[in-house]
Amino acid sequence: MSIYTNIFDKNELPIRIAHNEQLASYKLADALYKQLPPASSGQPIVFICIGTDRSTGDSLGPLVGTLLAEKKLGSFFVYGTLNDPIHALNLEEKITEIKDNHANAFIIGIDACLGRMKSVGVVQIGDGPVKPGSGVKKELPPVGEIHITGIVNISGFMEFLVLQNTRLSLVLDMAKTISKGIYQSSLRYRYSESQEEYTSLQERPI
Asked: What ranges in 13-74 are assigned the alpha helix state H?
């Protein structure tokens, strides 16, 4: 039995997955894969992991980036790690640099966010860009054709302090689920690339 069995019947977004539910990373991988352009398009797949290691709640993005940097991701490119974070002060510069390096890239923005109490710990894949800084009333450029966000704490009051006082254990667990899902999606994408290459060779005239 393939581990890539379609868990969701529809492509509708947003898709919400509790980070600690059974098969969370596989569900995330399946949902993400369905949103990616076909391997035959030749579009680079770029993940921009936004956040800073100076705030526990806002460290989700660079934690994901760091965990992914340790893996072989094939055609996936990752920016934003604990050592080289992408945050409010360098976001515009980094986006320009990434777009220069990867023409016509399909970009997925990854960031932490705040939400309702019952949603804390939920990972969401949504259509359109992530809007960094909106939870703490900052205006920054939107990022991505689609986005992955993790709800790390509750919103509504003194958001900056809430992010500063978010439990690192929760953020790390969420980062592990997200990075594992992206890695599994990369394996599936790599397999589709090899299948398309094999089909192309089979159809080539002798």
From this structure: 24-35, 60-69
User: How many C-beta neighbours within 10 Å does residue 4 have?
Assistant: 16
Q: How many domains does the structure of the chain reveal?
A: 1
Nearest alpha-carbon partner for 155 in 123, 117, 110, 112: 117
Q: Is 147 helix (H, G, I), strand (E, B) or coil?
A: strand
What letter represents residue 48's amino acid?
I
85 assigned to some structural domain: yes
Residue written as token pair 């220069």: 100
Range of the domain at 156: 15-202
Beta bridge partners of 124: 16, 149
The H or E element spanning position 94 is: helix 91-101
More confident residue, 93 or 10: 93
pTM score:
0.87
What one-letter code names the amino acid at 177? Answer: T
Q: Give 152-186 pLDDT, tens digit per residue.
A: 999 887 788 888 889 999 999 999 999 999 999 99
Q: Phi then psi for 22, rounded to 5 degrees? A: -60, 135
Average pLDDT of span 16-43: 94
Q: Does the residue 189 lie in any domain?
A: yes
Residues whose CB falls within 8 Å of the CB of residue 56, separated by 6 or more in sequence, listed in order: 163, 164, 165, 166, 167, 168, 171
Whichever domain contains 141, its CATH number is 3.40.50.1450
